[in-house]
Amino acid sequence: MKYQVNPYLIYELKKEQTTIIQTKESSFATKNSFLINFLNFLEENSIDLISYNDMKSVFNDEKSLQESIDFLVNNKIFSFYKERHLSNKKEILIFSNNTDFVDLATMFWENLKIKSLNELEEQCYDNRIIIICLNPFNLSELKKLAKKCKEHPSNIYKFIFPYNHSIYISNYYSEEWGNPCPLCFFYSIEAQLRGSQTGVDNLNFQVMVDLFYRESGNFEYDGLLDKEDWISVINELNKEFKLPETMSNKIDDVLKIDLSTYSLSYDTCYHWEMCDCYE
């Protein structure tokens, strides 16, 4: 048995001689120094996955071990880990509304089925890995596709789209896994861009996009990409398709490709607080 360690914050109240533990879904106070030290250890060592046997080496006896696990699960610090693999799907399908990407991907992967985005909307697929590349990118289209993802939970999805003069590659998402969905990924990008605004007169990309939405209620972003701009995307996907099972912890990794320097910035996708995919 393995447990996923969910994000949490620790606040020490010295005057009260107690500690507050906060997660996304709950908060509680404790004076249990052993528990506090254990949570500090997990945090300091960036441990996000722990096994039952690992826990046995920490706790003195079976009774205290099980009580501690139950407590951590009930308070949303631990959740039961779901095995996540890419290799047990029937095939990889790639869909795009961009002819340059389709042409390059077809040339690179002769053994994969690479189709227009319209074919995804017209047909139903199950138990596949589905890669969706959008250029131009439209948030309304992303919302529609995210809804389709939830309707076919046996599939695994990954999205690619240009935004803010970069190309973004999402994590692998499955409704069955309950991990961050495509909208979580996009809205985290939005939040980061809004947070980078440095003054009233210095409009950044996201503020300009917001003005377009306010003006017309919709906005479609064309990255104006050449075929060579997609090469970094092809290389990244090719590496991911060859991931061994032991690398399944990389499933929630996301990537930003800067179109001016082609530098790669990796991160991890987390649930967006307003999204219902975490419920």
From TrEMBL:
Protein's name according to its UniProt entry: McbB family protein
Organism for this UniProt entry: Lactococcus lactis
